[in-house]
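Q: My labmate handed me this sequence with no annotations at all. I'd like to see what the chain might look like in three dimensions before we decide whether it's worth expressing. Could you predict it?
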Amino acid sequence: MKYWAQLPVVVRAIISGGVMATVGTVPWGLLAGFNLKHMPSVPWAVVPAALLLWMFWRYARGDWRPRSTSEARRKGLRANSLPGEVWGAAMLAGVVGLVALVLMQRVMNRLVVLPQQQDADLAKYPVLTVAILVAMGSVVAGVVEEGSFRGYMQGPIERRHGPVMAIVVTGLLFGFAHFTHPEVTIVLMPYYLAVAAVYGALAYFTNSIFPSMVLHAGGNMLAAIDLFALGQSEWQASPNPAPLIWATGTDASFWVSLVAFLFVGSAAVWAYAGLAAVARAAGVVREAELK
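A: Here is what I predict for the chain of 291 residues:
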């Protein structure tokens, strides 16, 4: 513990968040893959996955041994309850932020070639099994990734270096964590940084991972539906994007997308400013104020 305390805060946060993300997500990936190979007619993987997720949550929030780290784990998870008015403002800001993200990707589709997401052919599996596994995977991602990245990783960096650096560092690590997928390349880093900004700002202003957890899980479910039903990748605004403007020049569609992005992006800034005011009035103490 003495040597651990001597490490820079950023290093400790990255290690803690990375370990928690790995421990929380890898078992689910193994279980889901095993389920599709053995008895795919029954989505049995959700039962052990739910148990493992419950155990992850209990430990991450400070339960169980070692008691010497209990308070640090509780604080690190950042699973703080929120009053109703803060929940409403957070949901509004998060949804507007996600809409701005989609519009940003519509513009990006005309600037660079975004890769197509490559997923296993799930048509050969029962629809009910796929639907239940997708729902469970979305919940696991929402709980584990928000607790790991916006809780254990972002929080300590916020207290030491402020929210901007915390969100940038977390966004970069969040993006690199997805490089395990073969189709993910560096061209998608702006997308993951934007995702980190949407969720990270929610965690910063509310000092809680609950709003981003709900939006993350819901967003993953919608992205999975788009991928399986329409062939549209999570980061693509359209499965069949128009040609790049560098080849064809700008057109009305591009300018409409750009103006829409700027308009909704400005609305998102306004919504987050409103969230900050509501949280402050409700007495929510931000992480950076807990130094």
